[in-house]
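dude i think i finally got it to work??
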Amino acid sequence: ANTVVRVTASDPVQLTGVEFEVDGTPLPTDTSAPYEATLLVDALTDGDHVVAATAVNRFGQRTRVQRLVRV
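look at this
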C-alpha cells in the first residue's frame, strides 16, 4: 500500500522545494506546491519510522519537520 505525505510550506524569499525522507533515506524532492511524496508502506518493516520534510529556499536556508509514524 502507498500513502501520500503532504506538507504545506512557504517562504517570503521563494521555496525551491521540499526534500522528503524516511528513516534518513531520501525520497524524491518536490519542487512545486502542493508538496508531497509517496511513501511505500509495504517496503517498511513493522514498527516506528521517522518521516521528515525539509523546506529549502533559494538561498539554501532549510527548515525541517519530522514526525514519528508506526507501521
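DSSP finds no helices and six strands in the chain.
im so relieved honestly
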